[in-house]
Amino acid sequence: MARKLAASGFTETDAEELAHTVIATRESAEPAAQVARSTTPPDLAGRHLARLLASYH
Fold first, then answer.
1. Number of other residues whose CB lies within 10 A of the CB of residue 51
2. Fewest CB within 10 A of the end CB: N or C in the chain?
3. What distance in Å separates the CA atoms of residue 43 and residue 4, rounded to the nearest whole number?
4. CB-based burial of residue 26 (10 Å sphere; 0-12 exposed, 13-18 middle, 19+ buried)?
5. Per-residue pLDDT for the chain (57 aa), expressed as one digit of tens each?
6. pLDDT value for 57
7. How far apart are CA 39 and CA 15, in angstroms?
8. Closest CA to 18 of 3, 2, 7, 42
């Protein structure tokens, strides 16, 4: 994840930190989706992660 972010123009530091944030957020959304029996948690996580990543450019 960090390599892909760096390859797309993020600094190495931002890429490393954002990769951890993306992975942690997605991993948290999966069990939340199972408990809620809904795709809403990962949908919301993805939407907000996209906004976060876009804010760097």
1. 9
2. C
3. 21
4. middle
5. 999 999 999 999 999 999 999 999 999 999 999 999 999 999 999 999 999 999 997
6. 77
7. 27
8. 2
Q: Which two tokens stand for residue 29?
A: 């959304």
What is the radius of gyration, based on Cα positions, of the chain?
A: 12
Say which residue the tokens 């450019």 belong to: 57
What whole-number distance in Å separates Cα of residue 27 and Cα of residue 21? Answer: 10
- Helix/strand/coil (H/E/C) assignment for every residue in the chain: CHHHHHHCCCCHHHHHHHHHHHHHHHHHHHHHHHHHCCCHHHHHHHHHHHHHHHCCC
